[in-house]
Input
Amino acid sequence: GQQLNQSPQSMFIQEGEDVSMNCTSSSIFNTWLWYKQDPGEGPVLLIALYKAGELTSNGRLTAQFGITRKDSFLNISASIPSDVGIYFCAGRNAGNMLTFGGGTRLMVKP
Amino acid sequence: DVKVTQSSRYLVKRTGEKVFLECVQDMDHENMFWYRQDPGLGLRLIYFSYDVKMKEKGDIPEGYSVSREKKERFSLILESASTNQTSMYLCASRGLETGGAGGYTFGSGTRLTVV
Output
């Protein structure tokens, strides 16, 4: 199947720092999504992006749909301890199926 | 809110056992999915179903089968469990009416250990 390359695989940062992670693909997607998985839970949708070039914010989170439609990034500003978890990017193709990245494990040091 | 319930949070099974993982959703969603989550590999699609008694293979169906006898329930079956099937299994559902890409709702996962 299609592959999404998500980086970094893990990050250990100080509380208050900004965080940036990204996903790249060899294929074009119609939609990019970012999910967060808290420990012991299933992933929950954070942000959905529907158009190339789109920049969308959700509180301290900002995500962009790359203009080539093959990449996306997620930024978290002023991280707090509850930001801990695994962040997944996902791309949706014309067949309406999602392909997930490998995840970025975020650890925040108070 | 849609709720997707996976019957077990943790399971330990022996090699060769037949294992059933159950998933139930309460919003009359047409589409249901089973994913496997492994560190660094993200979520990989095992099987999905777009209606009762319908099933489609995902990216890694080998060693698994599924059953969808009722709309709300989607079962993942490991016919003969092996140690390389030790993983976190996530069920998800999506309704056709949601349309938007954010329509996937995930269960809390079942962590399966095969010994």
Remarks:
- Chain B touches chain A through 23 residues (CB under 8 Å).
- Residues 5 and 27 of chain B are 11 Å apart (CA to CA).
- Chain B has a mean pLDDT of 91.
